[in-house]
Amino acid sequence: MPELLLELFSEEIPARMQAKAADDLRRMVTDRLVAEGLVYEGAKAFATPRRLALTVHGIPARQPDLKTERRGPKIGAPDAAVQGFLKATGLNSLDEAKIQKDAKGDFYIALIEKPGRAAIDVIAEILPVIIRTFPWPKSMRWGARSAKSGALTWVRPLHAITATFGLETEEPDVVKFSVDGIEAGQTTYGHRFMAPGVISVRRFEDYEAKLKAAKVILDPQARKDIILEDAKELAFAQGLELVEDQVLVDEVSGLVEWPVVMMGSFEKEFLVIPDEVIRATIRNNQKCFVVKDPKTGKLTNKFVLTANIEAPDGGKTIVAGNERVIRPRLSDAKFFYETDLKTRLEDRLPKFEQIVFHEKLGTQAERIKRIERLAAEIAPLVGADVEKTRRAAQLAKGDLLTEVVGEFPELQGLMGKYYALAQGEDASVAAASEEHWKPQGPTDRVPTDPVSIAVALADKLDTLAGFWAIDEKPTGSKDPYALRRAALGVIRIVLENNLRLRLADICGPLFWMWATVKRAREVPNDPKPSDDPESSRFTKFVVRVDTQAHGRRAVPVAVVDLVSFFADRLKVQLREQGARHDLVDAVFATTASPWWRTDVMRSAGRLDLVEAAGSEAALESEILPQEELQDDLLLVVRRVEALGKFLDSDDGKNLLAGTKRASNILSIEEKKDKRTFDGAPDAALYKLGEEKALAAAIDQVKAEASAAVAKEDFAAAMTAMAKLRPAVDAFFDKVKVNDDDPKVRENRLKLLNEIRAATRAVADFSRIEG
Questions:
Q1: Residue 382 Cα to chain centre, angstroms
Q2: Cα separations (Å) of 11 from 50, 164, 174, 218, 221?
Q3: pTM: predicted TM-score of the whole model, two decimal places
Q4: Mean pLDDT, 10 residues at a time, the chain of 770 residues
Q5: Residue (of 88, 24, 33, 36) closest to 56 by Cα position
Q6: Can you give 562-629 as a three-state secondary structure string?
Q7: What are phi and psi of 214, to 5 degrees?
Q8: Beta pairing partners, 105
Q9: What does each C-alpha distance from 241 to 21, 273, 290, 304 come to in angstroms?
Q10: How far is CA 604 from CA 414, 542, 628, in A?
Q11: What CA–CA distance (Å, rounded) separates 357 from 308?
């Protein structure tokens, strides 16, 4: 079958745009081919600095013939309608139309046959449109304007278009079209300097081979492989080791069509600069790789560059030019570093008073003080030294005002560690400057030092609490303050360090503080300023919840909503780790009540009632339920793990089946009777031994499972649940639930509800699939 070859030859395309541009070209062309009935077998796109190329093979030579029916007017319709129908369908008279009968009358039907066109003609119409509408992130306009199309906009001036179509065994035809005076043909050009002449090509195989002979490696992956392997070999030959950088390899491969790897050097005096600063300087400014001594792991005064030509002098001039540029860059970096060392981190902090973090959340200086207080409170919970933690939190942001970080923002935190060590700070205090930013992504490591953990949690929780307090929460795909990433960072730190933390306890004081600030803004001359959470003027911020660890306590509504957000993020995290989504939902259904959500409370009128109540008695007796606020993330994860293991056993599978059967029967009967079957069954109405045995088993399991859950022994809770299995099986085998006696029927349905209630001690089995 025929093959299409397309090349768009232009001035240099920015490296960062090439991969997406190649993918866009493949997608746009193949989508249009399929839309025109030209279903292809395969397609592949390529990019170099000066060209986008596409090959599509297995395209039919012609479009398939198309037959369609078009409904016309009713028989006896006005002549104008009939003439319009004939004109639109190309019929000469109504004798050529069919008549179709339906309930509304008899209608004329035209059978329209549209023969398929030659694929090359269809392609000649498709390609100009795609070229004119190509979605470059940035483009430029040049060339002569025409009344019909205007000047072409392209990322850089477009010089030539190669487009051929034909069978492998035959001479291909040129796809004839033009775009702003550029005629499609079958000629392209080789390397700009080493083989700039015209190349005549026919099909892709011929095209790729001739480009290689003209010093152009078409495939980006092939260029990456050459750069990486040659750089490694060049370093190895001198007893050194390349510091690999895949992002830089991707970028450099987009800067050259014929990669030639060389090595340069710089003065050893610059090695007093931290390795990361040297690497950032050389990488950012000259797109070069650094090398290290494998014996020490430290950088050497060598670097690896990638040229685009095979120079007559072996590259000496190119290497010298790069060395000449790198030398002053390193000199600047050394000056910045040495200048930074002259000022202690704590002496930089007053400048933060002039820097606003957020207009509603105050300055960076105020935020640092909040983080310092919160980190000190978290420290004992994670086994960190309080004073070291306080000091670490105070200094952690200090390097943001240094010269090096101003030049290389990606080194924030890392430079803080170096400066802290240089001024004699404790190693844990210094490490926290770098690690409190972590994790910054799903593959980034989490801090493990207790001081770093405390500061990292304080930093992220302060951010979350602050934006929650001002109602700047993520919505849909919008998350301008990266709050989802902050929440996932907290979750990973907690889980990977096996930390037992009550998030509501940690975030609660922050919300009381923001409530005080809000009240001060609303009532500037309040005669009784107080941040007492029991004060009546805070009732609109308060809900009351039960927890296993603390009993009944006051918790701000926003904290409840924030914990719900953590629950949602934890679900995402667990699912990405392979946990069954239904098990996660089943566990959260027992640990997270629906009134957690602020919008649910508002829709139920509770927030208005809370605000209007103004008294603790009203809060407790009329409005707020006694529910458990599950804000211990590690506990939830352990429960999910235990549930998964239990359901892998025969007891778990059979109990799940029995519980689902009970739930299904209850759902049907509750819907039929328009009521629920809550309340304890009446033992006097038990007629069969299986009923009594099930009731006794439920009482035993409830007690044992609840005791095990209270001890956080979820494996024991699952073992207790397994004891229900024989009693449930026997009940369904021998007992007729819908007994003829209404009282017995109701009692047995209440007994089924007890099964559901007993299993909810560990999970909501109705949410489990299978």
A1: 29
A2: 5, 22, 23, 16, 21
A3: 0.79
A4: 94 96 97 93 96 96 83 85 84 82 82 85 96 93 55 90 89 92 95 95 94 97 97 96 96 97 97 97 96 96 97 95 96 97 97 94 94 96 97 97 96 97 97 96 93 97 90 88 94 94 83 67 53 42 47 63 86 84 79 39 38 38 46 86 88 85 87 87 90 91 86 87 88 89 91 85 80
A5: 33
A6: HHHHHHHHHHHHHHHCCCCHHHHHHHHHHHCCHHHCHHHHHHCCHHHHHHHHCCHHHHHHHHCCCCEC
A7: -95, 25
A8: 102
A9: 34, 19, 9, 11
A10: 49, 16, 19
A11: 45
Cα–Cα separations (whole angstroms), residue 20 to 130, 132, 766: 15, 17, 45
Q: Where are the alpha helices (DSSP H) in 445-482?
A: 450-469
**First and final C-alpha spacing in the chain:** 48
Q: Answer yes or no: are the C-beta atoms of 227 and 233 closer than 8 Å.
A: no
Sign of torsion, CA 91 93 97 100? positive
**Structural contact between residues 459 and 440, judged by C-beta atoms closer than 8 angstroms:** no
Give the side-chain half-sphere CA count within 13 A for 270.
Answer: 26
Angstrom distance (rounded) from CA 264 to CA 254? 21
Q: Please count the residues of the chain.
A: 770
Q: Judging by beta carbons within 10 Å of its beta carbon (0-12, 13-18, 19+), is residue 392 exposed, middle or buried?
A: buried
Task: Give the pair of three-digit tokens for residue 648.
Answer: 């892998």
Q: Which two tokens stand for residue 406?
A: 């101003």
